[in-house]
User: Fold this.
Amino acid sequence: MFDLGQPNKIFLPLVLLLGMMLVPVKAESVTLQVGLIQDGRPPYFWAPTESSPPKGIYIDILDAIARRTELSFNYRFLPQARIRLYMVKGLLDIEPGIDPSWRSKISEVNTSVYSDPFMSSSERMVTSKHYSNADNMQRSCVMLGFNSEIENSQTMTTLDEQQLLEMMDKNRCDFAVMPSLVIHYYLAQKKYNVNISAENNHFELTLRLFHQQQALLPVINQALAELRQSGELAEILSRY
Assistant:
């Protein structure tokens, strides 16, 4: 028989354990290193300047996750090839905006885990209006680190998609493949001598995490679910 005035030594730990189980699980306070392409990729993100902090879709989403969790994010702007290497070596924790099919090297598969998707993406073929024979286009333009499957001896490489469009505008390459959202952003800024195809190649963009951060996935996915349910995620995407 238990003495209610003196809690039993076995009963008290059970009460404490039950209380702990009822407390929502949250991630410990931790700062994650996020890899972003050094020259920026509007509207996904802009690199910081002396007068402006980093901004864009990915930044806004990660900042919103930080407000709902104990996580914080440090943004590191690096060449694309270095981001992929650092993610494999664990020198970065997150590469945002990645469809898992894009990281198919064995070393990347073995060291990557992915959040739930936070947005969809599609691609479009962009062709120069200077070139009339669409069936015999040879000179491709690619952004450094992207679309290696269409590279050939006449491929021109650029550092960002604005340079890519400028190259086609000046008749220095014939075609390129670009995300629809990026194309819309740049065409809203300036008129280019290009034709745009219909959407194709649909992807689901996630947060790619270094596999040793897998324990954080439930917390990140819960924050993404809350952003989706509250409408804040849709509001972020509508800004751009």
In short: The beta strands are 30-37, 71-78, 94-98, 112-114, 119-128, 141-143, 156-158, 175-179, 194-196, 200-210.
